[in-house]
Amino acid sequence: MKLSFQHLDLHLAQPWVITRGRTDVKKVVIVELTDDDEIVGRGEAAPISRYKESAKTVEAFLRKIDPQRLRTASVPEAMVYLDRLSSHDYSAKCAVNLALIDIISKRCGKATYDYLNLRFTEQKYITSYSIGLGSPDKIRQKVQAGHPYPILKLKLGGPDDHAALKALREVAPGKLIRVDANEAWRTKEAALKNIEWLANDNAIQFVEQPLPASTPARDWIWLKQKSPLPIFADESHHHAKDTNLTALCFHGVNVKLVKMGGITGSFEALSAAKKAGLKTMLGCMIETSILISAAAHLAELSDYFDLDGNLLITNDPYSGVTAHKGVLSFANAPGKTGLCVAVRGETQATRP
Ligand SMILES: [Mg+2]
Question: Containing domain of residue 67, as a range?
Answer without folding.
Answer: 2-113
